[in-house]
């Protein structure tokens, strides 16, 4: 089995992948630990033959995790943000400062679509652009839905926006305080993503496919105005592309990859952008 770990500052996701069939056998998520407990936080390591890690947690957390795993597992791969990988050139002035989860998402999106807008809807919402040809432009970071709600001093009470809610409902004025807050932060998030996408595509004169991942991807996607796809395993896809361990991965097949959405015509993007600037 292959254990893939996507370690965030607060939440860590894991999955077990069959090394022979490339099928996903199980998956889960826990709060990020200072010290991991195999069999409780992550699967029993006796069945694991290789580990791949993407981590944005504190350096000490990553060191402890890698130390534990290397004592129990033969092969441990740790992803890093580099100057270049898989045909993509990192747009950061200091490439190592780019969050590795964003780098994995950018690499996965490029392998799948050959140029993309990669949006990760987690604690923060990040938007990264990779042009056809592999030039990563850099990106944007805005507060995520939960972070925006916490900034209003309402903590996490009723924070979850139902991912099955109709976007039209979420964009209407709230008639209770909790609705007003939820609808307001939703409007702020989706408006920012829509505007960022249009502005960058206009500047670069290219319409890029958009791919969304992260815990709030499903709900954010309902307010996105351009063709897009939700890819929950996009960060894992970057790990697969960087460290291919199965026959399917070596052939370029990434787990759970969606059909690449056809971008809208540049004329429509520019018309929508021009209209929004009049408001």
Automatic annotation (TrEMBL):
GO biological process: coenzyme A biosynthetic process
Record: active site: 101
Example GO molecular function: metal ion binding
UniProt subcellular location: Cytoplasm
Binding site for ATP: 6-13, 123
Pfam families, per the entry: Pan_kinase
Any one Gene Ontology cellular component term annotated for this protein: cytoplasm
Keywords of the record: ATP-binding, Coenzyme A biosynthesis, Cytoplasm, Kinase, Metal-binding, Nucleotide-binding, Potassium, Transferase
Binding site for substrate: 92, 99-102, 177
Superkingdom: Bacteria
UniProt keyword annotation of Coiled coil present: no
Family: Belongs to the type III pantothenate kinase family.
Identification of the protein by name: Type III pantothenate kinase
Origin species: Halomonas aestuarii
């Amino acid at each position: 089995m292959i254990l893939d770990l996507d370690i965030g500052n607060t939440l860590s996701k894991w999955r077990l992948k069959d090394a022979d069939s490339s099928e996903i056998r199980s998956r889960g998520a826990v709060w990020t630990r200072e010290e991991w407990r195999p069999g409780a936080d992550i699967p029993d390591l006796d069945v694991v033959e290789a580990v791949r890690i993407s981590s944005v947690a504190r350096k000490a957390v990553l060191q402890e995790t890698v130390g534990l795993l290397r004592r129990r597992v033969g092969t441990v791969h740790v992803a890093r943000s580099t100057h270049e990988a898989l045909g993509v050139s990192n747009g950061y002035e200091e490439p190592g400062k780019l969050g590795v989860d964003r780098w994995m998402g950018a690499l996965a999106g490029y392998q799948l679509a050959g140029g993309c807008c990669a949006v990760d809807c987690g604690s923060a919402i990040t938007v990264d652009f990779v042009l056809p040809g592999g030039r990563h432009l850099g990106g944007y970071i805005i507060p995520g839905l939960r972070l925006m709600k916490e900034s209003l001093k309402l903590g996490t009470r009723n924070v979850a926006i139902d991912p099955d809610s109709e976007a039209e409902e979420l964009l209407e004025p709230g008639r209770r305080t909790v609705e007003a807050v939820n609808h307001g932060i939703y409007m702020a998030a989706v408006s920012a993503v829509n505007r960022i996408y249009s502005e960058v595509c206009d500047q670069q004169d290219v319409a890029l496919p958009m791919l969304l991942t992260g815990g709030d991807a499903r709900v954010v996607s309902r307010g996105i105005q351009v063709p897009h796809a939700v890819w929950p395993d996009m960060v894992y896809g970057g790990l697969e592309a960087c460290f291919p361990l199965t026959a399917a991965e070596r052939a370029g097949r990434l787990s759970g990859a969606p059909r690449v959405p056809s971008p809208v015509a540049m004329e429509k993007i520019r018309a929508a952008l021009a209209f929004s600037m009049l408001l």
